[in-house]
Amino acid sequence: MMQIVEKGKKDSAYWDSSAEDFQRRVAGHGWNLERDPALAILKRIGALGPGARVLDVGCGVGRHLGAFAPTAGEAVGVDISARMLEFAAENLRQHANIILQVGDFKNPDAALETLLAQGFDLVFASMSPAVEDLEDLRRMSACSRGWCMVDRFLEEQDELKASILEAVGMDVRDDPHNQGERTKRLWTLLWEDGYCPQLEIHARSETFELSADALMKRYERNVKDCNAEKRERIRRILRERSENGSIRSDVHVLKATLYWDVRERRRYR
């Protein structure tokens, strides 16, 4: 039976309030990750062998855990948001080898420390704000007896989204999907700490044709703090772009997959 262990509430309010939007967007994109470059790399390097013990840091509503569970001996998901894990528990109810624990990976309490100390063959983090500095990377490495991986966006070129953010006074470079410099910094920190990090970059293009309401939901996370006036400004832009009830959005994405084997350290540094 899947377990959910709840510990700690620090800084969880934002992510709790975002959970429904994450669930909607993940459901909209589907759960099939067979073509996901990060999973292809994990299979290639043998990090998802039969019976592997996997930790997903900032697992959200459980999208990657669902891909890990069929092969893993045990898949553990940690997230600061109890609401995210409620969705994850429902999404992953068919898997008996998943444990979900509420906790702050950046500031683990005693219960989370105990869990992390049990050791994992793979420690994985996708777009997780819990992995941003050297201390976080060292914590990931300390948890692992094999591989670590950080998967995140480098850049999202979405002209429609950029015009909406600009219209409400936001900088598109503050979007969490535009994190190129952060990823470069993580590679440098790992290298300077004596690891041999590898970085692969993947590009993809997508075209969406959605209604104004559907696009408003798609961008909800970016505009959730906007007041009523700014929201109306966004709706006006979307209505102006609409043709026959739908809006075309062409998106080009660059993603980075950063991974390292904790068993391989540089001797001379």
Describe the structure.
With 269 residues, this protein is an alpha/beta fold. It is 39% helix and 26% strand. It has helices at residues 13-29, 37-45, 63-68, 82-91, 110-116, 134-143, 159-167, 180-192, 212-218, 220-223, 228-241; strands at residues 3-6, 53-57, 74-79, 98-102, 120-126, 144-158, 198-210, 247-261. Helix 1 (13-29) runs parallel beside helix 4 and helix 9 (212-218) packs across helix 11. It is globular and about 60 Å long.
Please report the number of helical segments.
11
| % residues in beta strands | 25-35%
Strand neighbour order, sheet with most strands:
1-4-3-2-5-6-8-7
Distance between the termini: 47 Å
Residues in helix, %: 25-40%
**Overall pLDDT metric:** 86
Uncertain parts = 1-10
Spell the H/E element sequence: EHHEHEHEHEHEHHEHHHE
In total, the number of strands is 8
> Describe the biggest sheet?
8 strands, mixed
